[in-house]
Amino acid sequence: MKIVSYNVNGIRAALNKGFVAWLQSVDPDVVCLQETKAQKEQLDLSIFDRAGYPFNYWYSAQKKGYSGVAILAKREPDHVAYGTGIDYMDHEGRNLRADFNGVSVMSMYLPSGTNMDRLEFKLKYMADFQEYANQLRKEHPNLVVCGDYNICHEAIDIHDPIRNKNVSGFLPVEREWIGNFMASGFIDSFRHFNKEPHNYTWWSYRANARNNNKGWRLDYGMVSQPLESRLKRSVILSEAKHSDHCPILLELEK
Question: What residues have CB less than 8 Å from 107, skipping those under 6 apart?
């Protein structure tokens, strides 16, 4: 089971940059998208049908042109869950989950803490999501939570840990949370296979950051502990350039 996760920073913009041709070349079974920035009715869904993903599900923010997640699939899921049931999260379209033959795959877009109000919102979301995930794993022990977590876990995951130590995305409280999230029963699938530095998934559009690989690793394929034996590979697909993020890919043995 090949799963791709990608913060596309606007699905309509990504489509105009060759997203579909790229998707067909990678040929995943399931695609988790974040920051789609579109309502379902604003899209020509036949594009995804023709690309081989007739089953596509969209969970948009109430605010147009903002946030939003989606899941594209080659085969029909057994069940699709929109949101978490926690109102303030669901108003922003940040969680969508689809179940496939005993494996539950979530596309999650965790908020960024761009100012003090949003940082407080992010911290509340993080705490509430942890509780939600704890309960969800009781019903769905084989859980994959893919997406943009907007957090770098360790110094190895950011190009300049010293200068960014007080910047949201690398704050001690955020790093502690993601460490605790993993300790609660999740595996960072990329680090399960790759311990090397200079592997990032987001680059600022400023100062030629991507060409200089001055990035942050914000995107994760977290898998619950029962799936560890089925992990086959997990990689960063940095050659894809439809967004300021790049996609990640993880593969599970069936």
Answer: 5, 32, 33, 34, 69, 70, 71, 95, 96, 97, 146, 147
